[in-house]
Amino acid sequence: MRIAIIADAHSNLEALETVLRHAEGEDALGQVWCLGDIVGYGPDPAACMARLRRFDLRCVPGNHDHAAIGLLPTDDFNRDAAAAAHWTAGQLSPEERHYLENLPHVVQEGDFTLVHGTLRWPIWEYLYSPDIALAHLQRQQTPFGLVGHTHVPMLVVEDEKAKEGCQIYYPEDGTMVKLGDRRLIINPGGVGQPRDGDRRASYAVYDSDARTISLHRLEYDIAATQKKMEAAGLPRWLIYRLSIGQ
Fold it and tell me: DSSP state, 169?
């Protein structure tokens, strides 16, 4: 079985549709694993939710999902992120709000644990350093973990011989990770708002038969998304950053 692994679609329908078309070509839509933040920042929250819910979806919530339905205050968001969260809140139906509200913070699927941030702080903590990775691994009861939130593709390999207890890599487009005996954490990168300087949408495909996870980067129609953001009156910086992958 081949499974699409996505994170941080952020209401960017053009990016999400591009990823799903590619995943279809990879025969990877039998199931979709979503690591949170379906909404926030972008112009199409309801459409992105509807598109993903057509699939056999395993999904956890992110901080922007919770902010949009009032479960997380925006006090710690920057001004533009807060403005987008409040705008998003006005776009969601009661049924859509109910769906986001009832998503489990952590999901286990076979050998994998799915969470948005970390297992120490599922909704908010960013996994970007060895000490945070080790704290996550101490709580990870499966061989492999999947996280989102940073919008940057990352591979963490547990390694007792390493000085910091693990090794961190930043995989590029086309990288294939073989799943072996060592425990791993994988971030597939951001679908709708990459932040590693590469503006292409990022996602991964898990092949359960080959026991591999492959990373994919895809060009999408950024200008179309930006035009819709402008029409919605979303903050200028959020519109511009799509062009530079930040």
Answer: E
In DSSP notation, 78-128 reads -HHHHHHHHHHHTT--HHHHHHHHT--SEEEETTEEEESS-SSSTTT----
pLDDT in tens, 74-86: 988 999 999 999 9
2-244: CATH, from 2.40.50.100, 3.40.50.1440, 3.60.21.10, 3.30.230.10: 3.60.21.10
Region of 36 on the Ramachandran plot (φ > 0 left; ψ -120 to 50 alpha; else beta): left
Q: Are 60 and 83 in contact (CB under 8 A)?
A: no
pLDDT of 164 > 90? The answer is no
Most distant pair of Cα atoms in the chain: their distance: 53
- Asked whether the beta carbons of 202 and 5 are under 8 A apart, the reply is no
Alpha carbon distance 185, 192 (integer Å) = 21
Sheet holding 144-146, edge to edge: 106-109, 112-115, 144-146, 184-187, 154-158, 166-169
**Helix (H) / strand (E) containing 243:** helix 236-244
